[in-house]
Amino acid sequence: MPWNIGNTSVRNPWRIQAGLQVFAREFNGNLDGSEQESLFRDRLIDRGVLQAGATVPKEPAWHGRKWRSCFAKLGLITGKTYTRLGNVQISRQALAERGIGTGQAYQLTPAGARLLQAGDVTGAIADVFMRQLLRLESPSPTEEPIQGGPTKPLVLVLQMLSLLEQANEPGLNLVEIAAFVQTASGHKGIAERVARIVQYRQERSLLAGGRPRRDFDNDTINTEWSEAGLALQPRSLRDYADTTSRYCRMTGLLTLKGNRINLRDEKRAVIDAILASEPTFLAAPNPLDYLVDFYTGTAIPTDDPVTALDEIRTFARLLVGLRIEPTVDADALAGLAAQDLATYRYRIEEQYNLAVEDEFARGHAEPNSPRIDEVLAYLRYLNGDSGQDVSIGREERPTFLEWAVWRGLLTMNSLATRPSETRYFRLDADMMPIDHAPSGRPDIVMRYNELTLVVEVTMSAGSRQEATEGEPVRRHVADIVEQPDGKEIYGLFIAPRVDFNTAETFRIGVWYHGDNENPNYLNIVPLRLGQFIAIVESMKTVPYTPAGLKDLLDRCLIFRNAHAPTWLRQIDIEVNAWLPDN
Hints:
Layout: H1 16-26, H2 34-46, H3 60-73, H4 92-97, H5 110-117, H6 122-135, H7 153-166, H8 174-181, H9 190-205, H10 210-227, H11 234-249, E1 254-257, E2 260-263, H12 268-277, H13 287-296, H14 305-321, H15 338-364, H16 370-382, H17 397-409, E3 426-427, E4 433-435, E5 444-447, E6 452-457, H18 464-481, E7 489-495, H19 500-508, E8 510-511, E9 520-521, E10 524-528, H20 529-538, H21 546-557, H22 564-578
Parallel strand pairs: 6-7, 7-10
Antiparallel strand pairs: 1-2, 3-4, 5-6, 8-9
């Protein structure tokens, strides 16, 4: 078997923290057996960590085991048994004697507790993942033996990206990770492996057309895996590569440019420190010490105050370059311990990330912005067009729909607030969506100078759509209406298909607050995703404004007294008439 990070069944590592919260609340030291595993699956669904529809093909306990396995492989909880290395067999009691747990199986480790304590501070979460992945080795007491020498996956990825960078080559995409990274075992011969990547790119560039290139990609992956003596289904190969990319990015050391992971310039000092000292191996020489370090959280470069201050100064320089005054003065922090500096590191990195988001948002409203084509590719894919150069897991589609619609609305450059204040879903440092908006809040609230737009999106369809969306959408719009800002407030509902019953609920558009007999009359317009795509696409030729969008919404609302099927047909007529090419 090849090495792998985490678990391909837990594809989105940003959900791990929320899943671990469920574990810590009810299952700490009590997650053994199919009954508890099934109950854990149910609790993950109850908390919105796992979608019920995504669990149908498998038995309930299977999902509970997969999430538990993910936690254990990342060192966030202890295991039940451990892989023997040589003549050494680790017991849970031996760990308990070293201060890790009490001897029970599946207990929260100090590293797991640190992830829970990180809250929603992106930098603190990244530090936890950096500690765990920097220690993670294959083979180890928690990882099965692999062919070849001992391997540290994160370090291997950093080494290969560094060599590609030195050769003035871009970073790694999923095909290259599947073919050339996942097949590596040990850290010798990396330069030769990078040379093969460059050769692969040169040969691929000579091919014309998508089909020949896809065939070449598949042949390359199969050849590399065959030569490495590995046998997996092609889909599994891509899954391994995808999780490697996602989990390594959680460390904050990598950035996603297009479809390639690259070294993150802002983290250069940390990356250089890692590459100067790694790989160092502990599992084979001393498995017990390895587990104690893994479960405690190994040292990272920013545990050194000099490196921590250097990172603070880096982000300060970047903010100054954006003509923004840093909120942290690095010179005033000299002499503080690394633990105290961490708070300031997280604060200034968050300030920088928000500034990057401001620039990202403004880029959508620029004339002929290439970001519009990016948005349209995601929207079309989510609307069923599989020909787009986009890949989104089924569980992630609701999250990406919120993000893509939000980006489509950013094309109107008339916000009265910062972009970060318009969304209730989270973004990572690459401006990619982390998770969907939490229940109890709207997905998006765009406060333009001309109007306030409360936006709700869903991938659901059929009669269940009204049951799951009718009440929350009206409540969220009504809550904003109760907080007037002097502008007209509209609701916008977007789904691949709008069910008649959903449209009927929004057509009536009434919401009572408690026992108050005077209702709010809400202006909510339902649009099919295809209609919204046409609106965004029109931005490429004739940019629209919030005032123009308000005009369209008003025109649609004129006909709300008709029955739902008639109203939806009239909305389609109004959208087509409003588009500049019609």
